[in-house]
Fold:
Amino acid sequence: MKTEGVRKLWDRYKYAALILLVGAGLLLWPAGSGATAQTGQNEASQVYAAAENLQAEMEEILEQIQGVGTVRVLLTMDTDGERQLAQNTELQYSGSTAAPEDYSRVSETVLLDGGDREETMVTQTAYPTYRGALVVCQGGDRADVKLAVTAAVSALTGLPSDRVTVAKCQ
Structure:
């Protein structure tokens, strides 16, 4: 009797529970590697790897929705996100403050002592924004599957439903 009640409750709220689990996982995702010197190429590869991981996680969770079947997800980014690092800036000038003859500005990134390594101090993080999503799945021709998948992708990416396309795979 008790099992039947739990089963009915699960059947009623399984999509919401799955979306909450994925959302909680994304919130707990590590913010960075802690490396102090990153090149533009290394940062770009980290962004690419994070996008691939998100797509893979979305594929795994979307496959759990009843009727979806095998699924592939493609996300297109509008912006890839960025981190603003804390800076110590020193302005040096000669002459009067009203009309300096010469001046220079020196900035350096603030580093925090993390025990065995130094870490950069991040003052602001801008998360990626997405342009659109394409989901191709076995159940992509069913209205209930399209609705569930569109709602899940919208919740995870912040995309409006008109920017999410769900299609049936071959």
Remarks:
- The two ends are 42 Å apart (CA to CA).
- The longest helix spans residues 2-27.
- The helical segments are 2-27, 40-62, 143-157.
- Residues 82 and 126 are 5 Å apart (CA to CA).
